[in-house]
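User: Can you predict the 3D structure for this chain?
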Amino acid sequence: MSDSSNGSSDGNGRASGERLPGRQRSRFPGISSRAYEHPADRSALVALRKLSGFDTVFKALSGLLPERSLRLLFLSDSVRVSEQQFQHLHTMLLDACYVLDLPKVPPMYVTQDPQPNAMCIGLDEPVIVVTTGLVELLDEEEMRAVVGHEVGHALSGHAVYRTILLFLTNFAVKVAWIPLGNVAVMAIVTALREWFRKSELSADRAGLLAGQDLQASMRGLMKIAGGNHLHEMNVDAFLAQAEEYEAGGDLRDSVLKIMNLLPRSHPFTTVRAAELKKWAASRDFQRIMDGHYPRRDEDKDTSVTDSFRESANHYAESVRASKDPLMGLVRDIAGGAGDLGGRLRDVFTGRPGGPGSEAPQGPGKGPQGPSESSGKA
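Assistant: Here is the predicted structure, written as structure tokens:
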């Protein structure tokens, strides 16, 4: 690689170093994708990897999917990244595969599209595609995080499920005229989209491991949301939007959030930024940077039960810590809150007494008598 010299493990399990212009990054030999995968994403992948004949089924299915057609389309109507074309992207791709220790470098294409986007698709072999809109939008370190994001998809095997999701989404349109046919397919598509949204959070983490520059990852997400006007934007204010989105409104807004999210394959950008920053501050991230992470050769011994337990614990903790009004109502119901009808009325209308606010105290309750509610949902 033109920007780095090969590193190696120091013999004590610590990640090895890699020299880059102006800074040093760690490398993660033999790292398993389980190290960075979101708990919900990890539990599903572990379960599928344990299924006997899973690979055989999907290889058979590949004949029904337009994978060969997509490969020919990119080869004929896009620019393949190499030492001769988009050399800086080629170097980033080699770097990301080196840092995350991906054995085989996937082919990468740049396709003409003003919409900033990137994807990793394919059943037999993953293919990475980035648009010209994205290449023109991001600087070098921001783009390095995106390339690492897509390499993370490849390492996890997400390309398989992304390809199936694309196929089923198109298939749902074709069977819409069949009674209940579209309902059945869309149920599968909805489940796959929820899974894939979690896989995007996993890949964001992989991008951070590849680039090892949190601010660059934050800037990249902010630019994808607001365009190339970095002097007009602020990362802290952008993250504050995620906090406002999470906690604001009443139960009606909570329902609208769900409805807005269901058709999407990606989480909202402010949410992705907030989730990535939270993970970067976690002990899990620090342990990976210190060289303590699950290895690929241990994947076969991973417990499906333990993975599902971790996923369930994560969702339970998310509900417990969430400031969303709907999650507050869920906590109240689980805790056996009284006057459920009144709570529903208050949380739907945003009136005092909903989740996140204190219920007024009646006469004789509390040292000062009646107290005023904050009025916040």
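Residues 35 and 288 are 7 Å apart (CA to CA). The radius of gyration is 23 Å.
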